[in-house]
Amino acid sequence: MSKDHRPHSSSGDPASGLSRRNLLSAAGWSAAAAVGAPSALAQSASAPPLRTAVAPVYFPREGLVPELSIGGKVAVITGASRGLGLATGLRLMAEGVTVIGTSRVPGNYPGHPFPLLPLDISVKASVDAFVGALAAQLGGRSIDILVNNAGRYVIGTPVPIAPALAGLFESQTQLAMETLYVGHVRVTNRLLPLMTQSAYSRLLFTVSGAGYFVGGTALSEANGLSFFSAYYSGKRALLAYANNLRGFLRTSGSPIQVSTVDPLVMNTALPVGLNPIYLEPVGGSGNSTNPFLQAVLEAFRAAHAVGLSPDFVAETYAQLLRMQDPLPNVLTGSRIEPYATQCASALVERGYLDENAQSALPIGAAGAPVAGSV
Questions:
Q1: pLDDT digits (tens, 9 = 90+) for 165-189
Q2: Which one of 11, 73, 259, 291 is least enclosed by Cβ atoms within 10 Å?
Q3: In this predicted model, what pLDDT tens digit does every residue of 247-276 receive, in sequence order?
Q4: What are the tens digits of pLDDT across the range 196-234?
Q5: Which neighbouring-strand residues pair with 260?
Q6: Predicted TM-score of the model (pTM)
């Protein structure tokens, strides 16, 4: 087993078989990931030279020795009713952490293993009420660990599909930015005064591997990823905010250490039914009469159905929180099978390389400046 992972209990390229039809399927995702240098896409003029490579910081890591104990700490986890937030809360509880979670509708989760306070981070009034309820729940204690985990997928054609639907498109895009970015800034601003201001204090964000994408490559279009443009935008904004906040807190002498956890494909209910924010009309089951969007939805849901367990994210958080100097940004995923296929790591890494080829600041591409050049 590799040391980089600790397991827990518009058209494609006909020559390589990467057509839009077969890419927009669960098998297509794996096929695209498996295609290597011989493919026409890999040899296209837009692709970077083969010497260009990526070195992902994958977590969790096998055999990582904890440097700290977090027993007795208090953690607040937003979006903790199910999925990644629930798994993370349970994992921290196993380490002796007192966990307080949030949910948009806590009443939907009777018997939850830790307290859930009502919170919709996209609504300012909800955040205001939550801060008061949380202070009462804390009973004078400080927050040692804040995990900004709440989020939703945002899916839809990147332009209004009809003039009459422009208003819906704009309002849903606004909701997306409030949910993926502005809401996290709002919650963080309100809770920073409640966080431990000496010794151990951690602020973490569940961002996404999508935070490193901008899209627009042949590979991303073949996989229908332009339908996630608003999601990319919100996650990229959150990634930038978290990293700039870390730098500011460090230089200002604050003890709060900031990290982001960026999962690849996880087995959660986020893409199912009406859980996502849709930029265009869908039916009551979350299906679309737009054949292009529906093909993307089916492929995406199929990929997530066999994705990595949320326990991988939970273990990632547990490892970072027990490090003396936590890494600033990590991907939850693996290059080791079967995990690599489950999280589509090869496809994701290839996507980063394709985007590098179209970047204004490409790394390792032919003709690009090298370190020390003027």
A1: 999 999 999 999 999 999 999 999 9
A2: 291
A3: 999 999 999 999 999 999 999 999 999 999
A4: 998 999 999 999 999 999 999 999 999 999 999 999 999
A5: 205, 329
A6: 0.86
pLDDT number for residue 37: 30
What's at 48, amino acid-wise?
P
Q: Are 331 and 262 in contact (CB under 8 A)?
A: yes
Backbone angles phi, psi at 280, to 5 degrees: -150, 165
Structure tokens at 350: 């290839």
Percentages (nearest 5) of helix, strand, coil residues in the chain: 45, 10, 45
**CA contacts within 13 A on the Cβ side of 93:** 15
DSSP designation for 65: P
Class of domain 19-357: alpha beta
Amino acid at 234: G
Segments making up each domain of the chain, as ranges: 19-357
Q: Where are the beta strands (DSSP E) in the chain?
A: 58-59, 74-77, 98-103, 116-118, 145-148, 154-155, 202-206, 257-263, 277-278, 329-332
